[in-house]
Amino acid sequence: MAEKILLVEDEDTLAMIVSETLASEGFEVAVARDGLEGIEAFRRIRPDVIIADVMMPALDGFSMVRRIRAVNSDVPVIFLTARSAIDDIEEGFGLGGNDYLKKPFKMRELIVRVKALLRRKHPADTTVGGTDTALGGYRLNPVTRELRYGADVVELTHIEATILAYLAAHAGEAVSSSDLMKLVWNRDDFYNRNSLHGYIHKLRAHLSRDTNVAILNLRGIGYRLIIK
After folding, report:
1. DSSP string over 124-155
2. Do residues 18 and 114 lie in contact, with contact meaning Cβ atoms separated by under 8 Å?
3. Dihedral sign from CA coordinates of 107, 15, 51, 92
């Protein structure tokens, strides 16, 4: 059965190009013209991935995803936007977005990102390692994507789990942003760098309960996971 993609985009020409291209890749595509239509379509078709414009009439993409996340924390979301301010990017990831593409974008890049998010259904094929890893007071299982702190469990996204597992495997070492981007998206470019920053921001929030665990910025290099 073909994976279902919900495309929420108010620009008719772009919506047509994106939907036809995705359909040619074998996806089943539903199109909504604003956030309100997007919520209705989400309830009706239960998509495997949502692709959502940020600036839309009636209900913007961020507000739409906020409502969807209240009932479904798992469906992957790619935001499309003409805006590139880091505050907007962080807001999108903070709301539960999984990826971010700035308009104009190449259709091939969108398809690669959609397929990367769909691989989250088969984490054993793409994550680093398969056993629990201790991170201070946390335990990470990269296969189930569960991050445990005592009795509390957070289910990470596939990309979050992949990044954290890689950092954990190289704890105390400098890990380049380029290596992380190639691990997740198979390429290193400006927009992936912004996406990576968003995922690191979310992982820091997940790890905030143990002050002995931290992900440090290494200016001009990347990141280092510190476990005291």
Report:
1. HHHSS-SS-EEETTEEEETTTTEEEETTEEEE
2. no
3. positive
How many whole angstroms separate alpha carbon 9 and alpha carbon 101? 13
Q: Is the pTM of this model over 0.90?
A: no
Tell me: the pLDDT tens digits for 46-80?
A: 999 999 999 998 899 999 999 998 888 788 899 99
Instruction: Report DSSP letters for the chain, one per residue.
Output: -PPEEEEE-S-HHHHHHHHHHHHHTT-EEEEESSHHHHHHHHHHH--SEEEEESS-SSS-HHHHHHHHHTT-S-S-EEEEES---HHHHHHHHHTT--EEEESS--HHHHHHHHHHHHGGG-HHHHSS-SS-EEETTEEEETTTTEEEETTEEEE--HHHHHHHHHHHHTTTS-EEHHHHHHHHHS---HHHHHHHHHHHHHHHHHTTT-TTEEEEEETTTEEEEEE-
Residue 129 has pLDDT above 60, yes or no: no
Instruction: Give the torsion sign (CA, 132, 201, 205, 110).
Output: negative
